[in-house]
């Protein structure tokens, strides 16, 4: 952030179960059709500009969850629990 002068505001991630095709199984040294978790990630700045997009594959059980991580500035954080 300091180097580029861009403030990261948040990140969207999507986790999706997939089966390894021939090429992916070869890259990961796994049998074809092995259940994998595909993780797609998209980070964005305060101005809404997309900063980073990535797709990763993990060898894990079938599982799917979608979530949005929002960054909160330390000066904006309220005391918890509220008094």
Short description:
This protein is 8% helix and 47% strand. It is mainly beta.
Please explain how this structure is put together.
- The protein is mainly beta and 83 residues long.
- It is 8% helix and 47% strand.
- The protein contains one helix and four strands; from the N terminus they run βαβββ.
- The protein has one helix at residues 22-28; strands at residues 8-19, 35-45, 50-59, 65-70.
- A four-stranded antiparallel sheet has the order 3-2-1-4, with no helix packed on it.
- A hairpin with a 4-residue loop joins β2 and β3 (50-59).
- The model has no long low-confidence stretch (mean pLDDT 83).
Query: Largest sheet, if any?
Result: 4 strands, antiparallel
- The gross shape turns out to be elongated
**What is the percentage of strand-forming residues?**
over 45%
Task: Please give the count of helices.
Answer: 1
- State the end-to-end CA separation: 33 Å
**Rg (C-alpha, Å):** 18 Å
Placed side by side, the strands forming the largest sheet appear as: 3-2-1-4
SS-based class: mainly beta
- Mean pLDDT across the residues is 83
Tell me the number of strands. 4
User: Would you identify the regions where 5 or more consecutive residues have pLDDT less than 50?
Assistant: none
Helix and strand string, N-terminal first? EHEEE
- The percent range for helix content is under 10%
């Amino acid at each position: 952030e300091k180097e580029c002068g861009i403030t990261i505001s948040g990140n969207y991630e999507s986790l999706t179960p997939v089966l390894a095709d021939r090429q992916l199984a070869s890259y990961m040294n796994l049998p074809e059709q092995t259940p994998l978790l595909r993780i797609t990630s998209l980070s964005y700045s305060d101005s809404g500009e997309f900063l980073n997009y990535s797709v990763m594959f993990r060898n894990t059980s079938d599982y799917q969850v979608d979530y949005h991580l929002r960054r909160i500035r330390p000066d904006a954080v309220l005391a918890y629990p509220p008094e």
